[in-house]
Input
Amino acid sequence: ETGVTQTPRHLVMGMTNKKSLKCEQHLGHNAMYWYKQSAKKPLELMFVYNFKEQTENNSVPSRFSPECPNSSHLFLHLHTLQPEDSALYLCASSRGTSGYQETQYFGPGTRLLVL
Amino acid sequence: QKEVEQNSGPLSVPEGAIASLNCTYSDRGSQSFFWYRQYSGKSPELIMSIYSNGDKEDGRFTAQLNKASQYVSLLIRDSQPSDSATYLCAVNSNAGNNRKLIWGLGTSLAVNP
Output
């Protein structure tokens, strides 16, 4: 699926580093999402943006800071992460956030390892 | 706490057989239901969505929804080794102030040649 792209695909960082994940969607969608996927756990919704406005912050620690400059781009800024933050971070987009518009399409993900 | 339950498996079927994957959910107000396939090391990809009670067919895949019993299932006919993956069920739910998708843990399917 090339409709949603994510960079980098792999990231190794120390606990004192600052890094950013980037997501871009080419589907003309209005809603974008960040998810965390860890082993043995369901997909965890982190943030939702609809028309550039944040509509969901699922009690995510402040060391994760999202940014959505427009409907096509979404960033996740990372700082002072913990080893337990190591996971696959997935970006998704959808046309909208209700009814038939809420079908989500995922990017390839960023595999993050925090040392 | 809104939940989506799936049998984690692994579910093992021979090539050419029908694979049946099941999902139950707790929110009676849920209206949208999705099946995604996730290969190891890859991201989820949409297989089907279903919104009304009954069956919805797309090629070898059939989704079945029963809102009264709060379950949704996915049937894969003529299973192929390439169908071996984890299948995720997602259900929309009113959680807090917003509607959002609640995800199951996924069922691992192995199709044996």
